Amino acid sequence: MVGIDLSASSLAHEQHLKDKHGLGNLTLHQGRIEDVTLHGLMFDFIESSGVLHHLPDPVAGLRALGQVLRPDGTIAIMVYGLHGRAAVYMLQEMFKLLGLEQNEADVTTVKQMLAALPKHHAIQGYISRTRDLKYDAGLVDTFLHPQDRAYTVTQCLDFVRQAGMNFMHWWDNILYYPEGQITNQENYRKINAMPDEAIWQFMELFNGTLGQHAFCVCHPSRPAHSYRIDFSSDAFMDYIPVRRCQDVTPADGLPEGRVAVRREPKPTYTLNPAASALFRQIDGAKTIRECFAGSGLKGPDAEICRAAFRQLWRLSYIFLRFRS
What we know:
It contains twelve helices and eleven strands. By secondary structure, the chain is an alpha+beta fold. It folds into three domains: about 30-80 and about 150-225, Vaccinia Virus protein VP39 (Rossmann fold, 3-Layer(aba) Sandwich), CATH 3.40.50; about 85-145, no CATH class; about 235-320, Outer Surface Protein A, domain 3 (Alpha-Beta Complex). The strands form four sheets. A four-stranded mixed sheet has the order 3-4-6-5. A three-stranded antiparallel sheet has the order 8-9-10, with no helix packed on it. A hairpin with a 6-residue loop joins strand 9 (about 260) and strand 10. The chain is globular. About 25% of the residues are buried.
């Protein structure tokens, strides 16, 4: 494992954690992401969370990471979401008018101003959704950082293309698909009939509060069939579902034969009888085809499984991996 950070103080804390937990296989380097190729290393997996959006040229940063990624590797990225942070940029501008800087006195001023804001101010919703603002470092990063930019869904996809990479998938599908959010069946059908990129864009606007986007990218040379989940043919029956959630029992109980699932902090969702029977079969080793065989369900297996497992995948309650 390798950690790279521009900040000496951050690296000192990472060294403390390395020593504390005995991470002998972790090597730390101080430097810029744009210079990552200078280390002469190649990686199967790279995580860049909350970094690229602070660079003067985020595309150059992602392009540099791509240069040290192996052909079949993956980069996991988190960048700020534009719509969910609209009020943040209002306050950034407000604090610039005061000439605030990153020091203890000005952080105190930020706290005082936040406490004085009207209850109807647009930032109040953002404050209720984030934990970062409980800490001084989070306040500085949110309101006093000299450089950051945020992205819409469309801008994320353009960002990836400009860096010469391929978009793989979102980390939390539940934010980008209508499952669990659009209950009117006619409206659901209209949304679901759109191309995926349009569905993602629609759901971002429908949600309105996405303050960040987390997704994975890879080299264009990597075969799409090695990572792209596709329910359009019956080949999905050989995917292996892996649980991302727990089954729970709500206080008011459950109808017989039904399973309720939850993945914190996402809401509890009660599965229909067919999906419940299939969910009980998931053990991280069986394929979808094998889950159906063990479920006792009768009928068109691909049709039943497509409806159930696509829903579970879009709700972010399962991963799907490919059989090796």
